[in-house]
Amino acid sequence: MQIENILNELRDRTPALMGHKHFKQSSVLIPLIEINGETHILFEIRSMNLRSQPGDVCFPGGRFDQEDKHPAHTAIRETTEELGITEQDISDPIPLDYIVNDLGRIIYPFIGKLKTIENILPNPDEVDHIFTVPLSFFLENAPQKYKVHVEIKPEDNFPYHLIVGGEDYEWRVRTLEELFYQYDDKTIWGLTAKVLTHFISLITHERDR
């Protein structure tokens, strides 16, 4: 293949995340709701019948469906299904920064406003119950931070003879940071805490400008 042909083939291509078609894509919504004149954030407790992370605190959300037009549609659809509300009960979905992790997932977070908490009827197959936390709590309390060290363990037939250093190759060991918020008897951590902390950092930055 000639160089000019290669350049012409790639010149008008729009770059994307490498391998994104093989990633599992999900969206979550940070639901803002006014209660007694104060802004709250709504959370779900995952049903104990779920195979993945039963009993954990999370935001409404889930996997991208082929019929979803875009990530915001996924966030709204999943929220309506989990909270038993309609699209009309959700307004102003605004995207935050999306997350790409080493487990092959892309998560698209959004914020949005819920009209009222009275209309909510959680789907018991997915949601054990809901609760809200005043936004002021997160503005006044930083999350606790803990380190998780990720061990690298090649499979038994790994071809050490093909790399410089062989079995003595010095792998770069990763350290992950996990965030924790404790509100009453509720523990908010993991992806939910990371998305929440990002959101708080954005509005705090805007407030301080």
Automatic annotation (TrEMBL):
A Pfam family: NUDIX
Keyword list, A-Z: Hydrolase, Magnesium, Manganese, Metal-binding
Magnesium keyword on record: yes
Origin superkingdom: Bacteria
Enzyme Commission designation: 3.6.1.55
SUPFAM superfamilies in the cross-refs: Nudix (SSF55811)
Domain Nudix hydrolase: from-to ranges: 23-156
GO MF term list: 8-oxo-7,8-dihydrodeoxyguanosine triphosphate pyrophosphatase activity
InterPro entries on file: CoAse (IPR045121), NUDIX_hydrolase-like_dom_sf (IPR015797), NUDIX_hydrolase_dom (IPR000086)
Entry-linked Gene3D superfamilies: Nucleoside Triphosphate Pyrophosphohydrolase
Cofactor names: Mn(2+); Mg(2+)
Enzyme's top EC category: hydrolase
Name of the protein in question: NUDIX hydrolase
Protein source organism: Oceanobacillus locisalsi
The organism's taxonomic lineage, starting at the top: Bacteria, Bacillati, Bacillota, Bacilli, Bacillales
